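Lab meeting notes turned into a lecture example. A postdoc, R.K., suggested we walk through two folding results consecutively so the class can see how the record format repeats. The first protein's sequence and structure tokens come next.
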Amino acid sequence: MKKVKISAVISAFNEEKKIEDCLNSLKNVVDEIIFIDNSSSDKTVQIAKKYTNLVFVVPNDPVMLNKNKNFGFTKATGQWIISLDADERVTPELASEIKNIIKNTKYNAFEMPRKNIIFGKWIQHSIWWPDYNVRLFRKKFGQFPLKHVHEKLAVDGNIGRLTNPLIHYNYDSISQFIKKLDNTYTESETENFIASGKNINWYDAIRWPLSDFIKTFFFEKGYKDGFHGLVLSELQAFYSLIFFAKVWERKEKFKDLTPEGFLSETEKELARAAKEVMYWIYTTKIESSSIKKVYYKIRRRFR
């Protein structure tokens, strides 16, 4: 049987601390590495050249990160492409699964779970697990749409699912989280929101962060990750607040959105928020307790 060639495409910017482990994790699974350097100012390129001669230096575009990944896909010569970030690692188990599955498959791409390590801990709930992402696809059958920074790889054809996870060393520090939030993610979302023509109201400054906290901590079971889950849920709420504030700044030019009777209206909004939080507390207790289920249902009804 003819060998199936696999190319890895990596796009990175100032990742000298993480890139070597990423590249090293690929040595037993890919036949070539296409390295796209986004004009790094550290030793990222020097380290990459230890693993591949196919290094391309391009301008950095933090608002539309995936543009340079698409460029990398065009340089790949393999029938299959693995797309990785510098903070991701292919385990030996995943490498073996990839090599076996592409020998004979009807799928044009495969998604795989990502094991997110955040602040030193594997986060096993909310948006962080299993966090399926397409990272393996046939050449010319996948690319990023280039509409926003959080987008998924678009695939032409059927997508299969792998079992073994990709290791993702996500956020190492609070500063890293805030920097990405400010310089990349909220920038893209703000631009897209403004382009949509939607409007904001003063109470969104409360509702957006609250909604994100409830979604992450309660609905997606972030509380099961303990204190890490609590802080991450609060950081997601902070993300929404910054997103709202940027829309207010750029779309409304800091327009005064104060309603009549502001203090009373704020009181009502916070009371509504408190009722919603209590609803989710009792709902979560109902789901996790068989003995006190009826008691919590009564408390939820009369909260």
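The second example is placed directly after the first for contrast:
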Amino acid sequence: MAKGLDVGTMNILSAQQDGSDTVFVQQRNSFVEIEYSDMAEQMLSRSEVLHIRKDDKVYVVGDDALNFANIFNKNTRRPMKHGILSSQEKSAIPMMKLIIEQVVGEPSYPDEKLYFSVPADPIDSELSTLYHQKTIESFLDNMGYDAEPINEGMAVIYSELADNNFTGLGISFGAGMTNVCLAYYAVPVMKFSVARGGDWVDEQAAQATGTPVDKVTSVKESDFELDFTTDVGGVEGALSIYYENLLDYVIQNVVKEVDEEDIEEGLDVPVVVTGGTSSPNGFEALFRDHLEDANIPFSISGVHHASEPLYSVARGGLVAARSDEDVDEPEEEAEAAAADE
């Protein structure tokens, strides 16, 4: 056994193998605060709603948080911002710990391999991912896992480009960041992130239309399509405008980083786009159109949208963990044989 874990700003997901199937467990990475009462806590416990009581407050965590926020006319709070633990949210660490415990469960055996995603340091911000990485690693190690970080963009390569010898450009459009990795035979040639993603799109659309951010997020996650034909002046129209701006921004930074890294011009690679922010219908076509207009100094053999964009990073972590586990097993068998001699 082994597990992969996508530690995302909007969702946290685990992946593990069950026979020939990959099983995913998911929780929304958010919480909402409500007033404590004995009756309220009894009802939450009876209904198996994930929650924590602290003093005279109850915190509803995970998937149920958005429902409670809408009922009580509150905004959800998020343990993470811009792809890493939020320094502005004092409850970030206990909430993250609870959600991660729910998503990964107990290890099947001591030191079970688990690869968890971490973003690259963003090139357009002074944010550092080190504290975030070490904190998540500590959570998982204390639970009994042998936890290893994996770059989010590289996880996309592992998940989606096995048939191309793990060679290509993987782009993960997350909520807090967008991560980019160019790999050649599973070796990263270039990796970076930008501090814009789905949250930035939602915030800009909310500001432009005077709509609460949670409402904008709900619209985006329902039946929103990038077709640019409806809702001029409304939430969906604003979302379309800022989605297009996000794609331009990411592609401009890909071109810039390729130039700075002096990538070989003879490359001919596929591009795969994934992540929850890439889910709306029309995203792949819009991305392909904008990429064709960009001056990238190597050849693109095709653009592919992951069939399950929300699950790509967790699946990539699982691939890495299983590969690492397979390497360790022969070493352990050799050590055991030597001990018997």
